[in-house]
Structures are given as structure tokens and as C-alpha cells.
Amino acid sequence: MSMLTLKGPRWVTVRQHRRALWTVPAVVAASLAGVIALRWWASYAADVYQAGPDGPLRSAMDVAGTAMLLLPLLVGAFVAGPMVARELESGTYRLALTQSTTPRAWLASKVVVAAAAAAAGSAALVGVYRLGLSPLSGTYQFGWPDRGPYESTGTVVVAYCLLGVAVGALVGQLVRRTLPAMAVTGLVTGLVMLALGALRWSFLPVQTLTAPLGSRTPKLPKGAFMTDLGLTTTSGGRLPEWACLERTGNLRQCPADLDVTGWYVEYHPVSHYWPTQTIETAVVLVLAALALWGAFAVLRARHP
Length: 304
What we know:
Blueprint (H helix, E strand, L loop, with lengths): L7 H9 L1 H31 L7 H35 L2 H5 L5 H31 L15 H4 L3 H20 L2 H22 L7 E6 L12 E9 L4 E3 L2 H6 L11 E9 L4 H30 L2
Antiparallel strand pairs: 1-4, 2-3, 2-4
Helix pairs in contact: 1-5, 2-5, 3-5, 3-7, 3-8, 5-7, 7-8, 7-10
């Protein structure tokens, strides 16, 4: 976003927060350089020491996954605090309103600049994360459904960053104090992420496999994410996998009164990754739109 092409309140917003905006490409560049260096070291260690992709790369990607989960909270906190609440708290927004700028244009400039930087920056970081994850993909804690890799390799983290922008614009006006607004926005955004994280695997119906009791449990397709495992009965009921073990001490020997006929396993195949991402992204964007509508509704109520 070139400052030469910006006018009015958007130019002022970029000028005010230019250091924070320059931080975005700097973080992306530093992350890319770090991932390239770590992947080179992993490849070198594999050739020279016959070592796997563990070690520094695994540790770094573990930290990176956590950082990507925190990114929407940081984006929302910055919008709520330094961009909105601080100006309302100090009264400096009144200066903008005396320069032929409407309240709507003042807030819109904050939202547009923050949303553009958040979307572009988070999308670039997703690309960097996918590059670093490639040698570790499918290993312990780096499977496609794991918390961290799931959010950081698709579109949902971008949507959550946009949600943070919208929530920050709303909370910043409601709280009107910098630090409390940042804390409340981070809390609200984090709670939404936790709630949808708990619900995401119910967006699509699970697939089910069955097997006779005397055999092994059903074999899952490669890369599948198991959500449930248990025992089936003649009546079609289900029991937990340890139901027979508690009575007989053996998983495959069941008392007659339990009427167990076999095993069942429920799972999501790898093909559910992008549909789940798409549904969750759509839900988050709808929530962001509602929060943004609320932000402008509060603005209209206070500046009719």
C-alpha cells in the first residue's frame, strides 16, 4: 500500500502507524529467512548425520504454530488500543473531524488499513509456515487436524485476523481506554477461536468403519483423523472401547450380557480439510461482518 496513492484519513492512518505497518513485511521476511535456514540445516543434518527433520526445525515450527494462533489476538488488540481507543481516550480524533473528515471516514480508514495489512501479512505467514511444515507434515503434533498446523496452513487464520480487526474497532469505541480495550478484544477474539475450534469437527459428518469383535480395530485410511472408537451391539447401540476390558480384562473378550458384536471407528478423511477450512472461514467472516456492523452502529449512535 503506497502512501503516494492514499489520500485523506487513510493517508493519516498509514502515517500515524507506519512503524507498525513496516513491522509486517519485516516479520514475514525474517520468518522466511529463518525457515529457509532451518530447512537447509535439516537437509544437511539428514545427509551428514542421517538425522531426521527433528531438532531445531521441529522446535521452531512448534513455536511458530503457537505464534500464528496468537496473531489474531495481537491484531485485534492493536486495532482496539493504539488505533481506536487511544485516539478516543486522548481526544485527538476530534482534530481529524475538524479537517473535513466525517466520523464514518475516520473509522473506515482505521478498518481498511488494518484489514489490508492483517490479511496480506497473515496470508504471507501462512505461506512461510507451510514451507517450514513440509518436512514435518504428518508427524507427531504436525498432522493436518492438530491445533496450530490446522489454523496456520489454511484460510482460517486470515479470517480470524479480520475478525480481530472488526472486534477491535467495536470494542475500542465501547471501552475507549487503550489497555482495557486491548485486553477485552484479545479475550473476545480468543474465546471465539476456542469455541469454533471445539465445534469445527462437527461441521461435516464423520465417516464410520466397522469390524468383527475378534479382529483388530478397523484400519483407518492414510492421514485420517479419528474422532471416536468403541464397540457396537446387536441392537445398534454403542459402548466405550474399554467396556469389555473392565469386565474381562481383555479388549476382545466380552460378557454375553453386553451383547457386543464388533468395533466401530469414526473419522474425518484428509479430504475434509479444505471443506472444514471453508466452512469455518465463512463463519468467522460472518462474525467479523456483524462486529464491523456493530462498530459503525456505535459510531452512528455517538455521532449522528
